[in-house]
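re: that chain from earlier
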Amino acid sequence: MNEIRKIRKALISVYYKDGIDQIAKTLVECGTELISTGGTYDYITSLGLPCAKVEDLTGYPSILGGRVKTLHPKVFGGILYRRDNETDLEQCSQYDIPPVDLVIVDLYPFEEYVAAGASNEDIIEKIDIGGISLIRAAAKNYKDVIIVPCKDAYSDLLALLKEKKGESSIEDRRKFACKAFQTSSHYDTEIFNYFNQDNTMHLRYGENPHQNARFFGENLPEQLHGKEISYNNLLDVEAAIELINDFEETTVAVIKHNNACGCASRPTVMEAWRDALAGDPVSAFGGIIVANRGIDDEVAAEIGKIFFEVIIAPSYTEGALNILKEKKNRIILLNKDTKPSDKKMRSLLGGVLIQDRDTKVETEADLKVVTDKAPTSDQIKDLLFANKLVKHSKSNAIVLAKNGMLLASGIGQTSRVDALKQAIVKAKSFDFDLNGAVMSSDAYFPFPDCVQIAHEAGIQAVIHPGGSIRDNESVDYCNNNGVAMVMTGFRHFKH
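^ sequence. v structure.
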């Protein structure tokens, strides 16, 4: 089967006409017949080029104020019929449907009208019907038809016409079809976002004041009070909810820049709050507070003594809400089993990365004791506590914990040794005693230096995933110095 196609007839219907002059002239030079609509027809004929009206092909004028121009079997039949299908060929002959080999479309500028704040009536009229249908039809039949779906593709078509003298290969047509479906997908998404404004949040600004930002979604905790939530607030809210969802025990955490700066599990919310705050009362200023139990009047009064941006909890007493609402800008969120999606997405290089969310939470059954000395039952509790925190900390990450409390963490460092040293310095700055504490690492130790530095600071038990070809060196150091070590087999990088 010959996959080279000669462009004998081209349908052109565009909003932006800059660049169409060169394309139309080149097509005519290649012997292509042109058909067009409305303003595009007027533009092409003003260039002195031969062009037929779509109305002459269909026998129907443009109607309903231009809403219906190309929606006709003679147009779509000419695009969609399969050139190697005998039944299609017979029907096109029977109904006098001529082939259309090239479709050039540029859609109504819906997105620009929305951005300019146009009226709803004007915006609705910029929802393209015929154009988007032409794009999908031509792209579907890319085996026989070439589709140019937007002004950004004009230059690619012109280069192809000049290179191949009015012909196209299957590879050419497939490339343009891919661009067509990308165009239609983006166009429909913008229309959906306009109609779905109840689930679209226009934020004050992005990560910084000079950046615009929006949030698309409907899985946010209910906001009970406070100012408009910000881009950075949302990042911290997600980090807070992801972390607190890993804890079954009564737990309070303080989040700053997506990392826990304080966290404690205790019998009561009041005790958990006080020890979470004690972990780093300096960083807690302006942070995000999250709890997995309800907030009562007494706890609210205690929490309200410091400045914070957001509080998240599954319930509040009426008195607690009244206390917390004393600050008009304070954001109060009700978290009733908010579950992040199973997938994690981030944009980069003009594309999107998608991965499964890290939902692994290690239990005692996952722990493999690799040293002569096994951790005590209390140390196991602390190791699992610390491992939950390190999972939600920026890599490279080290967490030091003791008695169900975060003492310090080293986060976002380019070396694991630096992360550990940062954690030790921070713990000592708040006068925490590291003797008997445990250490968790988000990844294995490539050398024994970390366990040595940790042991010299007072650490008595270590948890990490293992997997280094030199794991034995860290294990040997622990055995020679009476330190317990367990491995989990699960790495928790977070970038």
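The longest helix spans residues 170-195.
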